[in-house]
Amino acid sequence: MGLLALLKKLKSTPDKELRILLLGLDNAGKTTLLKSLASEDVSHITPTQGFNIKSVNSSGFKLNVWDIGGQRKIRPYWRNYFERTDVLIYVIDSSDRKRFDETGLELSELLEEDKLGGVPIMVFANKQDLFNAAPATEIAESLELTNIRDRPWHIQACSAMTGEGVEAVCIICSKVFPGQYAKLVERNGEHQQAGSNIHITM
Amino acid sequence: MGCLFSKSANHTKLSEDESPQEFSWDKRKQLDVKNFVLDKQSGETIGRLPGSINGQQFIIQNCENCDIYVFDHCATVTVDDCVNCRIFIAAIKSSIFVRDCTDCVVATSCQQFRTRDCKKLTAFLCCVTQPIIESTTGVKFGCLKMFYPQFEQHLQAAGISRFNNNWNNIHDFTPVPGENNCSFLQQQVSLTDYLPLPTVEPLNTIEVSVEARNSVIPYTVGSKQRPAGHSCLIAIFHFNHQIQLTTNVMAMLQEFILVQTAEMTMNDSQAKRVFKKNDCLPQITAGPVIMLEYSVHDVEAIQNILKKADHREMLHISDSIEDGAREIDCLNNLTEMQMSV
Amino acid sequence: MKLKKFLLRYYPPGIILEYEQGGLLKQRTLDILNLQPTSDIDAIVDDLVRTEKLITPSKVEQVRKLVQRLQDKLAQTQDSTFYLFKVLRAHILPLTNVAFNKSGSSFITGSYDRTCKIWDTGSGEEIHTLEGHRNVVYAIAFNNPYGDKVLTGSFDKTAKLWSSESGKCFHTFRGHSSEIVCLNFDPKSTKVATGSMDTSAKIWDVETGVELCTLSGHTAEIISLSFNATGTHLITGSFDNTVMVWDVNTGKRVYTLVGHQAEISSAQFNFDCSLIATGSMDKTCKLWDFTRGCCIGTLRGHDDEVLDIAFDYTGQRLLTASADGTARCYNSTTHSLLSKMEGHEGEISKICFNPSGSRVLTASSDKTARLWDPETGEVKQVLEGHTDEIFSCAFNYEGNCIITGSKDNTCRIWR
């Protein structure tokens, strides 16, 4: 990829590429989600020491997904990556109830950041495949997501390990950028899955 | 992955949950939580027999002075706020996260090993990726030595390769200048010096051995504690008796010190760089190769012993100590490179 | 005029004459750019004597010895194997760029952890950590050949000037409205230039820290900039597909090099600054005449973006590195292809010659750096060990030490 490619990804090209930032506590499943999005093997994943970037093509859109290490020690550096974020994906380990407060705190701090002002947020309630996972609705409540007024938000139940719910990332892009997305879909003569119709509303 | 549009995406507001998509977890049956959560236990000996966890999540919290044995494979494990506990968990498909624990022993095989805010931990591991510690002091790491009849099967269920063990290669997120938060246990240390074998029924019916020679996980001294001397690389190529041959080779070489092992798939150019011979390429790249690094004075000793091995043509042994050094160097670089995303 | 002293310049080969004229001490450099390990010394000496009046008959023997030394030096660095000397783990996030000072005694590393660190090459020990930036430290430079100052450019939109001896920050240059991604000192170390994602470049005074001028004109991000050898002009390469040449004193644009069909990745002067080479994501490299401002050649052949280019120290050869995983070496005068370097399993993001021109170093996303023979294109050595992409690499002036900076948070020293 190289440094030059990183600079290219810093540019804003809203009609072609979306910059997606993947944040969350360590062990939340961010890298697994990233690999799953990129249709790669999720069985050998190392704890992230810096960051990982992957570009995923989805119906003509290019999603540049930045997965940032979430250990407590390196959370102060999340700020390095805020600029020009189009969509924030916040990943939560739904089965790690001990740390719901901690993750709630980090999330609320992110929502106060100037540089992330107005950026749509998608909360992934991950690890739903585990028995101790709190359902997405419970998590939405405890995080008080319904109080978010300054930006579009969405909560998605998923299991990055099995891949279920992961495709929602594409759906969120279609909703967040309906204008551009519709144009692209039209232009690419995009597929309609098994007779479903897409009605995109704002 | 492609983009699947859910069938009823009509007029969905951004702030509401998505349409009724059926997920696998919606259909799962209810579990008896007690089997999978150990909470506020004190002075107990607790065990789980093979088949009792069967790939579910396992949670240990607020326990004190307990001996815990899980002879099964789990999805993921968290160990929180425990003091003076000794814990064995056979195989973990994803991560084990140990937090706010003091004076504990953890023995396990896992995909990821993580700690935070712990003091005085002893960990016997077979960890497929680089173990990480954060805000943790006084950790001692050792190689897991374990056998019980179903262990191999549990490792497989958890997707863990016994040959990819990074117990010796730790990443510390909060290093302290001039100090070491972790140290490594010597070879003579037995798991039972820290974690006694269970004596209560029915746990005592499981045939457990913690001897290196019986261990399903090959005992390795680790590259950080490589003895002075030379290295010899033995590679066992992929074929239908690969594991058997590997076990035989290790048994024949019991007198030698095994520094580290690896199991990895190589492409042509990687194979050429390590092995430098073109005629074996199809065999080398046919499937995952198992690699063993032994510490030797000269390679002839090993070559002589292995002359008697079956399927000798599926083995590569370093030709000389110079070759051995170069091959191991190359290999180390490759295994590290393969670990990152 | 009275000749006082001879000085040697190894790369590119040359002899510097220090002489007294009218009571003042002056310097003149004799370039011997064509010197090879196989060159005829006598012929070269005769040539020098003929053209340079300061070399009197009594000095000829001394000059011959000096040229011999230069030739020996060139021959010396031919085929050394590099070994990993140290892995430096002091940064806690990925590294960005790395650079040596002129003597090679120390080097600097920039990182996502917002610091720049100064290291001692011999021991591999950290000398200073330059802290203060509030975001990624992306671009870094020593004020070579002096080496007493370090300039850092950051995503926090500022650049900072530091003392390499004390680690103290002299100035913070504020004014850009977006990330700073390239910078340089002028050759006399009196000015610095910064290039930014805000599409402008700025020139600042080293002594006072004051902004001297803003170079506006590009319509997209500036990602490469270079002063010429006399410090009179500056070139900026931009994502707007053009390179602009600026007069440093007036801040006015002299001309624009138009022709590339896609973003510029790198723009470099050759040794005597008669040529500018530009690499672009349009898969080509172009050569431009500096005086006339026109394109004199296009080097085609890569299957993918050209990500980096480099001249050798004499300016006679030019390298191109591409996202297609290969690198090429060209004769910069005839534009003929000299060799192709194939073997990397991923994009090559950085390329450079060693100072003597006998080796090419490439850094790749395949996590290796490789050394090549530029004559044959043969790979001489694979430097492996990094566990993630290598973002930057550099040779020291002697050519016997290499540093690589990687996304795996480490820097490696190879000797």
From TrEMBL, chain A:
Nucleotide-binding is among the record's keywords: yes
The UniProt entry lists the main location of this chain as Golgi
* Pfam families from the UniProt entry: Arf
The answer to keyword GTP-binding applying to this record is: yes
Q: Which GO terms describe its biological process?
A: protein transport
In this chain, Mg(2+) is annotated as bound at T31, T48
The record's GO CC annotations read: Golgi apparatus
Q: InterPro entries this protein is in?
A: ARL2/3, P-loop_NTPase, Small_GTP-bd, Small_GTPase_ARF/SAR
Q: Which UniProt keywords apply?
A: Golgi apparatus, GTP-binding, Lipoprotein, Magnesium, Metal-binding, Myristate, Nucleotide-binding, Protein transport, Transport
PROSITE patterns attached to this UniProt entry:
ARF
Q: Name one GO molecular function term.
A: metal ion binding
Q: Which family does it belong to?
A: Belongs to the small GTPase superfamily. Arf family.
UniProt name for this protein: ADP-ribosylation factor-like protein 3
UniProtKB/TrEMBL annotation, chain B:
Q: Where does GTP bind?
A: Q111, Q112, F113, R114
Q: Which Gene3D superfamilies match?
A: 2.160.20.70, Nucleoside diphosphate kinase-like domain
User: What GO molecular functions are on record for this protein?
Assistant: GTP binding; GTPase activator activity
State the membrane topology.
Lipid-anchor
Note the lipidated residues of kind S-palmitoyl cysteine: C3
- InterPro entries referenced in this protein's UniProt entry, alphabetically: C-CAP_CF_C-like (IPR017901), CAP/MinC_C (IPR016098), CAP_C_sf (IPR036223), CARP_motif (IPR006599), NDK-like_dom_sf (IPR036850), Tubulin-bd_cofactor_C_dom (IPR012945), XRP2 (IPR039093)
Location(s) in or outside the cell = Cell membrane
**Which SMART domains does the entry link to?**
CARP
Which residues are annotated with the lipid modification N-myristoyl glycine?
G2
UniProt xrefs under Pfam families: TBCC (PF07986)
Could you tell me the Gene Ontology terms of the biological process aspect for this record?
A: post-Golgi vesicle-mediated transport
Output the Gene Ontology cellular-component terms: cilium; periciliary membrane compartment
Taxonomically, the superkingdom here is Eukaryota
Q: Does the keyword Aminoacyl-tRNA synthetase apply?
A: no
Q: Does the keyword Nucleotide-binding apply?
A: yes
Q: Which UniProt keywords apply?
A: Cell membrane, GTP-binding, GTPase activation, Lipoprotein, Membrane, Myristate, Nucleotide-binding, Palmitate
- Domain C-CAP/cofactor C-like stretches: 20-175
- Similarity field: Belongs to the TBCC family.
Q: What is known about what this protein does? A: Acts as a GTPase-activating protein (GAP) for tubulin in concert with tubulin-specific chaperone C, but does not enhance tubulin heterodimerization.
Record-given protein name = Protein XRP2
**Species for this entry:** Bugula neritina (Brown bryozoan)
From TrEMBL, chain C:
- Superkingdom in the source lineage: Eukaryota
> InterPro entries this protein is in?
WD40/YVTN_repeat-like_dom_sf (IPR015943), WD40_PAC1 (IPR020472), WD40_repeat_CS (IPR019775), WD40_repeat_dom_sf (IPR036322), WD40_rpt (IPR001680)
Chain segments annotated as transmembrane: none
MF terms in GO: U4 snRNA binding; U6 snRNA binding
Any Gene Ontology CC annotation: U4/U6 x U5 tri-snRNP complex
Q: Which GO terms describe its biological process?
A: axonemal dynein complex assembly; mRNA splicing, via spliceosome
Give compartment(s). Answer: Cytoplasm, Cytoskeleton, Flagellum axoneme; Cytoplasm, Cytoskeleton, Flagellum basal body
Is-annotated flag, keyword Repeat? yes
Record keywords, A-Z: Cell projection, Cilium, Cytoplasm, Cytoskeleton, Flagellum, Repeat, WD repeat
Q: Which residues form the signal peptide?
A: none
Q: Where are the WD repeats?
A: 88-129, 130-172, 173-214, 215-256, 257-298, 299-340, 341-382, 383-415
Q: Which Gene3D superfamilies match?
A: YVTN repeat-like/Quinoprotein amine dehydrogenase
Could you identify this protein by its name? Dynein assembly factor with WD repeat domains 1
Q: Tell me which species this is from.
A: Bugula neritina
